[in-house]
Amino acid sequence: MRRTDKAVTVAGHWQGHDVVAKQLTSSERHWVRRFAHEVAAYQAFAATPPPWRTPRLHYAGRTMLIIERLPGAPPHTDRYPPRLPETTVTGMIDALTTFASWQPPPGPLRAPATDWPARIRRYVAAGDLPADHQQALLEAVAGAPVLFGHGDPLTSNALAIKHGPLTYIDYEFAGLYPGGADLALLGLWLSRHDPDTEQRCAHTAEVAGYLRGYQAMRVLWIAREQRLYQTLFDTVDDQDHRHWLDDQAATAITALRKAARRA
User: Fold this and answer.
1) Residue 164: how many other CB atoms lie within 10 Å
2) Could you give the percent of the chain with pLDDT greater than 90?
3) Cα separation of 128 and 223, whole Å?
4) Distance (Å, rounded) from C-alpha 73 to C-alpha 64?
5) What is the largest distance, in Å, between two alpha-carbon atoms of the chain?
6) Predicted local confidence at residue 236, as pLDDT
7) Which one is the CATH code of 86-262: 2.60.40.1230, 3.10.180.10, 3.90.25.10, 3.90.1200.10?
């Protein structure tokens, strides 16, 4: 089904069930930890079922994970997909909103996904974020509610079916995030070819009461994308995308600055 530099995923059968098997192929400490975290996520779902459908866990080892194969297919596999059908966008936003409303059980899923203040300071020190906005980012992240999030809501990590709710798989990065983090990331990826989706995601966050968290996380996610583009994607000569990211960064920082003044 999929082969990356960290894992191979195949579809098959296990004791009479349709399953997906994921084999970890990387020995890098980061991916070993992410794999173990994903196993822990499925174990937590089995112990405390969330209000959305999750694959049943059939087997988990140190480098092998076998889960139920859910119906559906990813809406797209590109990081920045083309404009998607309205029903798909709505399904993705609804799924992320449901994640944020769930209280995970004690364990790995109730831990912060990362140390956001430390990341902010690291980005500022590296020149990826303007130093005069550090305090505004720190305050916005600290003031946002801490909610459960998927952490990697790519369209390739979603399953859409014709008649039924869209659901997500791949919980390597699931955990607690500042409110609006998932929506900010989804809005960034989808808005490359459908700018209206970012406004929809922002409105959803505003209605839920965590617009400032959304704005801060949007700034941080864009900075991360710029860092990734300069390192992982440096072989791709796409000046349009580079300029688009720069424009998005300027717009996001302006929105955060205005919110900080109002606060």
Assistant:
1) 12
2) 87
3) 6
4) 22
5) 60
6) 57
7) 3.90.1200.10
Whether the pTM exceeds 0.85: the reply is yes
Helices (runs of H) and strands (runs of E) counted in the chain: 8, 9
Cβ neighbours of 154 (radius 10 Å) = 21
How far apart CA 30 and CA 178 sit, in angstroms, is 22
Burial bucket for residue 177 (CB in 10 Å: 0-12, 13-18, 19+): buried
Q: Taking the CA atoms of the chain, what radius of gyration do you get in angstroms? A: 18
Buried b / exposed e over 44-77, threshold 16 CB at 10 Å, is: bbeeeebeebbbebbebeeeebbbbbeebebbbe
Q: Which amino acid is at 15?
A: Q
pLDDT digits (tens, 9 = 90+) for 129-177: 989 989 999 999 999 999 999 999 999 999 999 888 999 999 999 999 9
3-state DSSP helix/strand/coil percent for the chain, to nearest 5? 50, 15, 35
Residue 75 has pLDDT above 80, yes or no: yes
- Computed over every residue of the chain, the mean pLDDT equals 93
Nearest partner of 70 among 6, 150, 2, 164, judged by Cα: 164
Which of the listed CATH numbers 2.40.30.10, 3.40.50.620, 3.30.200.20, 1.10.10.10 matches domain 2-68? 3.30.200.20
